[in-house]
Amino acid sequence: MLQTALIHSTAVIHPRAQIHSSVKVGPYAVIGEKVSIGKDTEIGSHVVLDGHTEIGQRNRIFTGAAIGLEPQDLKYDGSESLVSIGDDNNIREYVTINRPTRFGEITRLGNGSLLMAYSHVAHNCVIQDNVIIANSVALAGHVHIEANVRISGLVGIHQFVHIGRHAMVGGMSRIERDVPPYMMVEGNPSRVRGLNQVGLKRSGIGDLESGRVYDGLKQAYRLLYRSGLTFSEALDKLDSVANNEYVQHLHRFLVASQRDGRRGVIPGRHISRS
Question: Which of 37, 121, 137, 215 is the most exposed place for a label (fewest CB within 10 A)?
Answer without folding.
Answer: 215
